[in-house]
């Protein structure tokens, strides 16, 4: 078996070497699936060593090692949230000097380890911010006004036989507590102001640029809010930032929206709180163990579930392509990255 | 059979007379179902002749006639969209001098006939405007970002086995053509501006108070818009205002949202346009023959369906109660109605 893997690695190395020799372009290690326009745009500019190329059968880390062994090995890689960039990864690809992530979050990248090895990191910047903010508002409207639940009701053909149906709740006047007032959180706030919501927020420190009420503590934020929106990065300080106590402080009429990361919420406690009516509802685009969704949620009428699509639109896909190539071109031409990420930039 | 109805009418008249004699309060003819708090609030202030009272078995018009025959017959009635106020209705209840409708629309009331007979009419004013505007944005976000479709996908447990899935479309930058820039339409515009949309509109005449681009013609509005939102009243001029030609002008990437009245759109043509990909999608809270929804829509993934709930929240229900009683008290005390409606006020 180990021999088999070794053999495959050799074969792959030769293939990659052939690919690498195909042009005078700089090599890029591509570790995420891309659509045809993205693939074409990359191949126009770079020698692409593609983990997802047809016929490529090596596991990811073996492929990375094989790619690092070609002549003129790749100095840059394009990754997504599914790739963990840690010491083992960087050991396997010592040629890498630049990691361009297409993810909005950075929780899968060991920034300190990258900094130690002189590996620059870029992320997707604000490419997704607008779409994620829009989606957060969509989820909140859906939970409060029962849009999806109403959809199911009509599609079942139940309208004609309609009995009493639980009323929705008005968005205007709601106190919305936003956890993390960065690119995304501040856009959510701006949108919800237009609906007449009162914005509160929690972040590492208060922002001078806004007049919203700041809460240094998420528990107090929850106690003073009708809605909690999770819009922070995932890191040690924000893992399970919404826990059992916070959910209880939010209370039985409270609603949670999560477009951050699943692990920002203690998911097991969230399911209990929803089941026991300790909170009123939830709109969830992310889950702690994606693509696994707690099965109990499937039968709840007061939750809106989606599959980590808050970032996904045709427009953001196209913007992401341009942005990723911009970061790669900046790196290869010795210019500053468009959206560099530093080890201390894990802002909420 | 006619004898039977006549007998029932006599019995009802006696019952109503007994009810009417029960207090010194003014009589109100209640022709819509109300929840317990609404019923109690009405009974506190008025002698309520209730079509939906337990044991009341007369058909609506016979009940109205019976109510008009009691001593001190009701001079005011509370109705909803399900009651058609026309010459026959007014003939049956000659005592009526005030009609308070809890509906937002006025298409079920013959305003000219009411004016001719000196019957004052009040509607729900702006009680619903905010909730309807919110819901319109919710439907639009849902269609563009596929929130309900994503919901169904996750609830079916399909995420883990996920293949390619059609991308959503960004709300920001979309040209949104609003048909009817009244209380509701202008609130929709304000919300969508916060998402970065470009607002166009059509109404009977341009509004001085806004800087949005005005289109005197819905066909041209559709041709210059990515989204059409129907937010006008239903009347002769706006029946089927969105017809086959308008849908074709909107085009294959276009989306329609209807929170007005079903008959503002030629529903048969809408179904064809959706089926044939002549437009991209639709978010529909209202239908031409409610509660009947064209069955073909049930299997479409690019439509979001709801059951005329854009006005419905706990908050609007409570506001409506206070507003309806306010109109009745104004009428009985000889004050101006809170939200009088005149025959010439059928603004879009």
Oligomer: homodimer
Question: What's the total count of β strands of chain A?
Answer: 12
Assess the beta-strand content of chain A as a share of residues: 5-15%
Number of helices of chain A: 12
CATH class of the largest domain in chain A: Alpha Beta
The CATH topology of the largest domain in chain A comes to Rossmann fold
Mean pLDDT of chain A: 91
Number of domains of chain A: 2
Which structural class should the secondary elements of chain A be placed in?
alpha/beta
Spans of chain A of at least 5 consecutive residues whose pLDDT stays below 50 are: none
User: What is the succession of H and E elements of chain A?
Assistant: HEHEHEHEHEHHEHEEHEHEHEEH
Protein name (chains A, B): D-isomer specific 2-hydroxyacid dehydrogenase NAD-binding domain-containing protein
GO molecular function (chains A, B): glyoxylate reductase (NADPH) activity; hydroxypyruvate reductase [NAD(P)H] activity; NAD binding
Family (chains A, B): Belongs to the D-isomer specific 2-hydroxyacid dehydrogenase family.
Pfam families (chains A, B): 2-Hacid_dh (PF00389), 2-Hacid_dh_C (PF02826)
What is the topological layout?
Two copies of one chain form a homodimer.
Chain A: H1 2-20, E1 27-30, H2 36-45, E2 47-50, H3 60-68, E3 76-79, H4 87-92, E4 98-101, H5 111-116, E5 120-122, H6 129-145, H7 147-155, E6 175-179, H8 183-194, E7 198-202, E8 213-214, H9 218-223, E9 227-230, H10 244-250, E10 255-258, H11 267-275, E11 281-284, E12 303-305, H12 314-332
Parallel strand pairs in A: 1-2, 1-3, 3-4, 4-5, 6-7, 6-9, 7-8, 9-10, 10-11, 11-12
GO molecular function (chains A, B): glyoxylate reductase (NADPH) activity; hydroxypyruvate reductase [NAD(P)H] activity; NAD binding
Protein name (chains A, B): D-isomer specific 2-hydroxyacid dehydrogenase NAD-binding domain-containing protein
Family (chains A, B): Belongs to the D-isomer specific 2-hydroxyacid dehydrogenase family.
